[in-house]
């Protein structure tokens, strides 16, 4: 049962302002230790700090996991409160959903075994999620805390491959050069690149290119990075083959590969979240997102998974992140009701 709404909103507001005031870009999540030590003591939830600087609270033997991430993108935007809204870096992605999950774990701890995870490095290479997968833990149900505009449930994310390409050339004086690596690479980029157009079509986007150090000498090497996104059931090997053929004289390295994820509308966690929103008079939508999240990785350690969270997803990574206290309350209520239903099926 939920505590009184005003009490819960005050607690959520104070926690979110405290956490948002701590700048935690990927790699600096350890700065949040004091916050989680305080929350652990106040909420009587056992705390474990992992090697990746993820923070686990609650029952370590739980079969239900609420997982969000503690890291944010750059730059820091100091938090502020205006009327019933909180502004600042990470309040939407994903410290708002994270606080809602933390409080839902606290609310349900007497009746249900739940683990809460504030994972590290989600905005980079998901070291926290990968560490959890490698820990050997398994769960019956996982809810990922990401902003889904408060009323949506994410059932599908695209996959991603990050490619590094390094090409070496014989440098020439620019006044007599017969070949130019920059022109050569540019032609290949134009040949291969596919900008995002629709969810079901893959995108191949060059994001970094580095070449040349001297103003009158052609480059001796060129570095290029491709960000490739692709939908569920797409044969990514055809794209990789085309890139390998175009850059057959260069070094190509896959620096990250995250497969897509898709769950059914009949997935038990999806249905529990759906009903939890209906109980509050909210008609949910099942959606798919073009990016990736820790759901892509944590799917391997559970029978059932979905993503849901308070906050307007259009504000992610912007300088104008804002979340209302009402959105956070809906998030807490949704997580709590979903946990109670999932827990009732376990016993």
Automatic annotation (TrEMBL):
Q: Which PROSITE patterns match?
A: ARGE_DAPE_CPG2_1
* Cofactor names: Zn(2+); Co(2+)
Q: Which GO terms describe its cellular component?
A: cytoplasm
In terms of SUPFAM superfamilies, this protein maps to: Bacterial exopeptidase dimerisation domain (SSF55031), Zn-dependent exopeptidases (SSF53187)
Q: What is its EC number?
A: 3.5.1.130
Q: Which reaction does it catalyse?
A: [amino-group carrier protein]-C-terminal-gamma-(L-lysyl)-L-glutamate + H2O = [amino-group carrier protein]-C-terminal-L-glutamate + L-lysine; [amino-group carrier protein]-C-terminal-gamma-(L-ornithyl)-L-glutamate + H2O = [amino-group carrier protein]-C-terminal-L-glutamate + L-ornithine
Q: Where does Zn(2+) 1 bind?
A: 69, 93, 146
**Which pathway or pathways does this protein act in?**
Amino-acid biosynthesis; L-lysine biosynthesis via AAA pathway; L-lysine from L-alpha-aminoadipate (Thermus route): step 5/5; Amino-acid biosynthesis; L-arginine biosynthesis
User: The Peptidase M20 dimerisation domain covers which part of the protein?
Assistant: 157-249
Q: Which InterPro entries match?
A: ArgE/DapE_CS, Bact_exopeptidase_dim_dom, LysK, Peptidase_M20, Peptidase_M20_dimer, Peptidase_M20A
* Predominant place of localization: cytoplasm
- Give the residues the record marks as binding Zn(2+) 2: 93, 123, 317
Query: Pfam families, from UniProt?
Result: M20_dimer, Peptidase_M20
Question: Which note does the record give on the cofactor?
Answer: Binds 2 Zn(2+) or Co(2+) ions per subunit.
| Keywords linked to the UniProt accession | Amino-acid biosynthesis, Arginine biosynthesis, Cobalt, Cytoplasm, Hydrolase, Lysine biosynthesis, Metal-binding, Zinc
Q: Name one GO biological process term.
A: lysine biosynthetic process via aminoadipic acid
Could you tell me which PANTHER family the record lists for this protein? [LYSW]-LYSINE_[LYSW]-ORNITHINE HYDROLASE, ACETYLORNITHINE DEACETYLASE
Q: Which HAMAP family match?
A: LysK
The family classification in the record reads: Belongs to the peptidase M20A family. LysK subfamily.
Q: This protein is called what?
A: [LysW]-lysine/[LysW]-ornithine hydrolase
Which organism encodes this protein? Answer: Acidianus manzaensis
